[in-house]
Amino acid sequence: MTLSDSRVPIRERVKTRGDVYSADCPCRDLLDVVATKWAALAIGALADGTLRFGELQRRLQGVSPKVLTATLRRLEDFGLVHREVIPAVPLHVEYSLTDVGRSAVEPVFALREWAESRYAFALAHAERAGDA
């Protein structure tokens, strides 16, 4: 059973806090969404406020338009990101965090801080492993 299984009513799919280590825990779907590199970086970038697609892509150096589009769609599907189409010529699309998305900022920033502060250690370890 997954959050996307439309045959099961939402009240039965999301019962409690859950147990992420359980194979049938629906919170795994949400963890799968936010625990990717591009999703975590997009959440972090949107923490500063609303961004248009091009601005977000420039901020997330190295992400392809296809991957960014897929990432933003998944974040939107799970209610973490709000997508607003602004009728203008040319059409403008803006992305912002929802309240639930904003609640993910602190853990995402904590993980980013951890990764940045442990990078030298991890790199040295990987280089030693590559020499073996």
UniProtKB/TrEMBL annotation:
Residues 25-123 form the HTH hxlR-type domain. One of its GO terms (molecular function) is DNA binding. It comes from the Bacteria. InterPro entries: HTH_HxlR, WH-like_DNA-bd_sf, WH_DNA-bd_sf. This is HxlR family transcriptional regulator. The keyword Transcription regulation applies. Keywords: DNA-binding, Transcription, Transcription regulation. The keyword Transcription applies.
